[in-house]
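Reading is simple: each integer encodes one residue's backbone shape. The lines below illustrate:
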Amino acid sequence: MYTFNGLGLGLGNLSRLSHARTRSISPENFTGEKGKGGMATEGTGKDRAGDLGQGWKISPSIQLLGHTTATLAEIEGPGVIQHMWMTTHPKHWRNLILRIYWDGEEEPSVQTPYGDFFCCGWNERCNVQSLPVAVNPAGGFNCYWEMPFRKSARITLENVGDDMAVLYYQIDYALTTVPDDAAYFHAHWRRSNPLPYKEVHTIVDHIQGYGHYVGTYLAWGVNNNGWWGEGEIKFYMDGDSEFPTICGTGTEDYIGGAWNFEQPQGEYCAFNAPFSGLPQVIKPNGLYRSQQRFGMYRWHIMDPIRFEQDLKVTIQALGWRNRTEAGLRYLPLQDDIASVAFWYQAEPHVPHPPIPHRDELEII
């Protein structure tokens, strides 16, 4: 377990004393400075404060205009981000691009749409109850991934849409020493829509360096009738070429479920667990909502996938053809699959491919 002067994931460290300095950034204290919270005299809550004045929720949120970028946090280290909470209207979730930069780097280590990062890739609310990511009623996004940095941390949010987004947020961190073997947090989003016939969805293929893979989120839109989750996930590491070192047995197996997630018979069973879950099952309504859509996660917290040189992760979209006298045959699917890969590695990292145009982000 990583510990930062006695701080770290898990209750086992909770009683240990530490000289780490606790800080928090929000619209009520944009810099996180000690003794500087709640001092705003201008902000989105000014009109509501009436005669209450300074100190009474003058600046609880920010307004992020379309086609602009806001810097949510700039922190001088060393330290560790321990918790992030954010909320905004669901219509903005795919149009807001979250980026995080460590130690003054020019290319972000984290680059992903806001909703997908918090396991809500369909612009629709669903509760998520996992260890590192929690989404609570009604749309409170929480991230508990441990994010150490040595020199600095910078968090930005770009609005690629036309409409203004009102964002409430809080970023909790500690200023403390960081061990030499602590790696940097990374996340990368990718989409295949539709997935070409007989091709696989690549979750990530540009990881180079030394680190460990810690999680996958999948927003899976089904474009056919029948079961869609026979596909295998594969991890190609440290020079693997045609065949991977790790090969799963099926999509629902990788998520920790079994037999189509079917419970009771004839229905998908949404579930949340600390390390894996299918929290979102979106059903057709017989009119304009014509496709099934799913959101699922798998966290490799107890079983991180270690690599020393490189890592590539892919997943198949595979269903069944109609039964014949010869039996069942697999059917390669052409689904709409978006994914977020989460990992830690030593810097420098290979720059992420650019986020596509908002038309390619759109949920359609």
In short: Residues 1-7 have pLDDT under 50 and may be disordered.
